[in-house]
Amino acid sequence: MISPLTTSGDPDVAAIDLLVEHVLGGGCSGLFVLGGCGEGAWLTGAQRRAVVRATVRAATGRAPVLVGVMLPATGPAIEAARQAADDGADALVVGSPYYFTVDGAAQQRHVEAVLSSVRLPALLYNIPQCTHHTLSPAMVVALARDRRVLGIKDSAGDFETFLKFLAVKQGVPGFRVLQGYEHLSAASLLQGGDGLVPGSANVAPALFVTLHQAAASGDAGMCARLQVEVEDLGSLHAYGHWLPALKAACAAVGIGNGVPAAPLLPATLDQRRAITAILARHGLVGSKPRTS
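^ that's the sequence the OP posted. Answer follows.
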């Protein structure tokens, strides 16, 4: 989920309420906050806390709330994990440390330290385009044996690596492998992936739920047709920086105002018009009431 912000930078609780209803109303089975789309690494502790509390309150137990603690080092990640636990999170999402170079052993120590700091399970997160470190497949295999580790979200866009993560399920059947890179949505599900965690589900959750259902029924033809829709919808990210573009898309469907965390700027008027035209092709413009 994105983290809707007011023009002053505070989390927009009313917009978070609308977003939760939109995502769950579209059929999604979980809520992931403070990830990449949620700008978790760029928000203050107070902002993060407000986002988690508002999401937990809006969810009212209808779906688990997973909270990202993708921070550069173990200490800050533990602090964020404890805060998330206090605020009602159902699970954490943990990636590689970053800024300094780390190996697989350091990644494993990082995850184990976060897990030991709270009584919550965790989903691993492979997003090397942000952390500049791919989660070591050997480390993932080792951690998968820990019942507190739910699975992994892979957003790297490298299908070969995704298949290596899928292979972990052979030894640990309960380990869930989720695709976060939208271009590989259909292929990943048909190959045996357990689900999707796509940023564009902030705008069109039902599209991805329908794709998941088509894959579960083995309808490869329907998956191919739906993937074409996913690709067209995803073209909105080409208008400026992808994050303000996604927030502009959410604003166009009536959720939030398109304001990103500093230092990014909102999408320009021309960019917003182009994004709105894409959404209109999918019947999404104005699909939700606007926040005040």
